[in-house]
Amino acid sequence: MRTPALTIPLAVLFLFGVAHADSTKTVESNPETASVAERVLEVGAALGPGLLVHGLGHLTAGETKTGLTLLAMEGIGAGIAVGGITSLALSGAAHEWIVPSIGLTGVGVGLFVGSYLLDVYGVLSPEGGFGSAPVHSPWSAVHIGYRHVVDPVREVDGLLVLGGRLIVGQVALTPTVWRTPEGRDQRFEIHGTYRLAGPPINRWGNALELDAALVHHRYDPGAFDISTGELTLTGRWDMGTLAPSLAGSYTAIGMGLSGGFIDYDGIGKEPTSMLLMRFEFGVFLGHESAPRGRLALYYDHRHDGYVAGMKSVGVGSGALGHLGALLDMELLGPWGLALSVEGGSAIVSGLSLTWKGERR
Amino acid sequence: MNTLRPTIWTAVLAIAFAGGCVDVGQDRAAFDETIGIASHGAVDVRVTDGLARIVSLDEGSLILWAQAPSLEVILTTEATESTPKTLEIQNCVADAVLTVIAADGTSLRLESAAGETPTTRRWTLPEPGTGPAIWRIASPRATQDAPFRFVVFADVQRRLDGIQDLFGPMAQEPDVHFGLISGDLTSDGSLVDLRKFQQAMKTLPFPLYASPGNHDIGTDEHHFQRTFGRCSFSFDYGGVRVTSLDSASATLAPRVHRRLDDWLTAGRDRLHVVISHIPPLDPVGTRNGAFASRLEGADLLGRLSRGGVDLTIYGHVHSYYVFENAGIEAIITGGGGAIPQRLDGIGRHYLVVEADPARQRFVAAPIRVYPEE
Fold first, then answer.
1. Is A15's Cβ below 8 Å from some Cβ in B?
2. What confidence score (pLDDT) does residue B125 get?
3. What ipTM did this prediction achieve?
4. Fewer CB in 10 Å around end: N or C, chain A?
5. Closest partner residue to A3 among B19, B294, B327, by Cβ?
6. Given CB atoms, is B291 within the 8 Å cutoff of chain A?
7. Residue A298 CA to chain centroid, in angstroms?
């Protein structure tokens, strides 16, 4: 089954592009306004041959430094990915080497894909980006919504989701609960995030964060619980600090480990573990006033939860995690909507009503 | 900006469709249900539970490729002149006997003749009457509860040309009644390689029942089925139920999940071994050489455990592990010749399993094979 998973959020990005169609582009070598023909050439170069030579869009636009930086990112990413895959092959996926091997492969692929997305973003976006990051994060936020689940294997069609975020000192607490309407399938997560480097946790900027989480999933039809503890290190970069053309975008890479147990009713507990890895590319939408928000595209290596890993026909079966997109918009005062689509073993999509508290 | 719209929308749709498939494997499961059914003229042939692939059917003969030691074939005809005169079963147990049960209830027992390979058996069929007839093909040992042995291996992949390194010692194992390969017979699932593997199988003195691995379905999902038969199947032999599940796409198709309920019921009061290429859960969770969904994996294991399964055997991971999943003894035996896991001290190997229905136990031991590389 194929689903147009990201159509709606990307359409919103497109509409923001239309709204900024009159904006001019700052070009390193030529500050004059680019003509429509030149823009078409830049975007065409980024989307077409730029698939092979990342940064080609910027190079075509005369932004040589940024173009070469993105090309270097591609090369480094490809090199790291090849190194990771070679390590996997040479070790025969030995458990002693599995975390660094998959980690390297993931980081390499993340840099490789990220450099392409950044090139496309840089030539598509108007000056200053489609939007900018809010200076402060809200001290508190709540969301409630519904997720539609398309899973041909498991007995779950829909989920109610309730979650929030609360900053306490230098720690952000993020609890979320998912539950089927009849309560036979439910999942609870609570994350505590501490910022190791960067501005205070309530401010946007380049940052390194440590995230500790507890996860509990109860699945009545299968008569088991999965309970895990997690630790993840995440780096987040404001790409506007790399080049003006990338202003309004960010990337994030997170790596971690999860460990715990599966408790089968009447059978007993068995250990479980998981490699955590997430790559995110995000774009801010809107500048000063509502509507404003962000669009995030991500790969998450998780194989648990409702989305889990991707299924495929062929050699890669079971190895990959899932893809997702989140469009989180503030529409009226503190109120907004968040639209999400994730594709793995199941397609999980839905809408949440959001409330975001005071920013200071 | 308008000129950019087609390009942007192309990109949007390309990314959107990358959401992927969630019902992979369902086509194979549906195709499974067409295996073992054929018609020729006024003759209809149906192999019960699809446990054999119909290689050919004409006025002269019916040729089957068996995926189980005991078969039941239902033949329906309205015109006796078009019924096959001979039956040939490839990949057959050596001491198989054919019992023909006519429409009027009379039965006839026929010994087989040897074919070109050790596992090919032939019968000359009596002149049939009209109406349905049932042919039962089984070894006399199929209904006994005496201990017997079978071999299991997986992940030959790139060492297909060196398969006789494995088959040589395997053929010397005493009292082996049949073998099971739980996937990755080949590197890419090409028809040429699948047939090469099938040819090599014919050198063994016992039949080998195959289920696919992720490497066997990459070229064309149905090459495997057109060569060997069903991807998921289950049979009884000597007080033991053997169930082989198609997990080649890191999941079980919903149709297979539904069939599994019947197989678990059938194996409830006997020793039950379940074979699958990809383990539902990898004992090394950070690697995830396992189902794409942990929830599906744990759910399946809980069902197997509550269904009274005694042993699970997997491939996919190129090493040898013994562990427990949902309280069931589990073995990974992926030493058929693919790039081996290093530092595990096992290398190429296959598994010999002794089934003792009277004592309700399996005893399994790995047999290392040289040369390793």
1. no
2. 85
3. 0.88
4. C
5. B19
6. yes
7. 3
